[in-house]
Design brief:
Length: 225
């Protein structure tokens, strides 16, 4: 019986020892969490997702092109209308007259306007002669100034000087001018009406002629380009 009691005590002691070891907490086991303790973020929430690289053969989206600027309206003033005697214009003139005193007369001229309203040129006149005049011709250098130029009319003043050729007589010189009005059908076409005179030089050249001044009306058509 003593042996049985000893065996029973040994079993009881062994059972108590086993219960004590099961109830003791592990050294690294976490303790119970307090009621107000903050919750630590999980490992999955703290780690950001990796950036996704573009696949091979594809490019990143290009930025949008800037909008085209709106064109500004053309504010340039229109060119002024063309007028008679504008710079760079060329003028040609032709005149034909006949009278019983002077006979048949023809005149021609050409000039180039180097600036607005100022045109140097040359003029030629031939008079066949009649009962009161002998045959003669003139070849003159001329300078025309146009002080008044509008759409339908122009006022011209012309200075002349050059050689005078008289049939069956020695040649001489002439100096004079003219004033005229041009009635314009367009900036380059018009009818010229005026009056001209030419002083013959020297006095010995015209002493045996009807006079030393040639004068008369101007009737001519002017056209240019």
């Amino acid at each position: 019986m003593v042996a049985a009691a000893l065996i029973a005590l040994a079993l009881i002691a062994q059972a108590e020892a086993s219960g004590t070891e099961a109830s003791a907490p592990a050294p690294n086991a976490p303790g119970p969490r307090a009621a107000n303790a903050p919750t630590a973020p999980s490992a999955d929430a703290a780690t950001p997702p990796p950036a996704t690289a573009p696949a091979l053969g594809t490019s990143r989206e290009a930025p949008a092109a800037p909008a085209s600027p709106v064109p500004l309206p053309n504010l340039q003033a229109p060119a002024p209308p063309r007028r008679y005697g504008d710079k760079g214009s060329i003028e040609l003139g032709l005149g034909l007259t006949y009278s019983s005193e002077a006979g048949f007369a023809a005149a021609a001229s050409a000039r180039y306007y180097v600036v607005d309203g100022v045109g140097p040129g040359v003029e030629a006149t031939f008079v066949a002669g009649g009962t009161a005049a002998s045959r003669y011709g003139v070849l003159l250098a001329a300078l025309r100034v146009v002080p008044l130029r509008v759409t339908s009319i122009a006022l011209a003043v012309t200075g002349r000087a050059g050689r005078v050729f008289v049939g069956d007589h020695s040649d001489g010189w002439g100096l004079g001018g003219a004033a005229s009005v041009l009635f314009l059908f367009s900036p380059t076409v018009g009818l010229e009406l005026g009056y001209e005179f030419l002083r013959l030089l020297p006095a010995t050249f015209c002493s045996d002629l009807d006079g030393c001044v040639i004068h008369g009306p101007i009737i001519a058509v002017r056209f240019g380009f």
